[in-house]
Amino acid sequence: MGVFGDVFRLMKAGTKQTANTDLAANLRQSADLAEQFGGAAPNTPLGTHGAAAANPFTNLAAYANMLQGSGTVVSLAPTGGDVAGTPVYAVELDVTVPGREPYRTRYQTVIAQAALPGWQPGAMFPFRVSPTDPHSLMLG
């Protein structure tokens, strides 16, 4: 079909998606999130994503300086909080970082219902760990 045909298909799909988008609902959801995180300083951790902050550049800088490790899920429980309707879970992890003793910590994160089976006890995830605070984690 070629590049021009693909561009046309993309424009057509975008127009169709725009017609099916509830802009008022999207705006309302954005306002809800802004109010929820309105008092948070952009460079401090939000408390629901480990060491992650609202500022992506702060996250990139922190991530680059963190140690690579892994975390094995021991248990998880809903905290009662949510972010835009997605529950926040407290995940108890056994963390292993090369050259350090393994330890247990708690990591809070949002977990969508569809992803919940992957977070069951025994599941292992890559984590980055702060070199100065072993309980300050970032997934990945």
Fold topology:
Layout: H1 2-19, H2 23-36, H3 56-65, E1 67-83, E2 86-96, E3 103-110, E4 124-129, E5 137-139
Antiparallel strand pairs: 1-2, 1-4, 2-3, 4-5
What can you tell me about this protein's structure?
The protein is an alpha+beta fold and about 140 residues long. It has three helices and five strands, in the order αααβββββ. The chain has helices at about 1-20, 25-35, 55-65; strands spanning about 65-85, 85-95, 105-110, 125-130, 135-140. A hairpin with a 2-residue loop joins β1 and β2 (about 85-95). The longest helix has 18 residues, at about 1-20. The chain is elongated, with a radius of gyration of 19 Å.
Task: Give the key terms.
140 residues, alpha+beta, 5-stranded antiparallel beta sheet, 3 helices, 5 strands
Number of beta-strand segments: 5
Sheet with the most strands, sense and barrel status: 5 strands, antiparallel
Continuous helix count: 3
Beta fraction: 25-35%
Report the average pLDDT across residues. Answer: 81
Straight-line N-to-C gap: 39 Å
Strand order of the largest sheet: 3-2-1-4-5
Order of helices and strands: HHHEEEEE
Share of residues in helices: 25-40%
Radius of gyration (Å): 19 Å
SS-based class:
alpha+beta
Low-confidence stretches are none
Shape: elongated
In short:
The chain is of the alpha+beta class and 140 residues long.
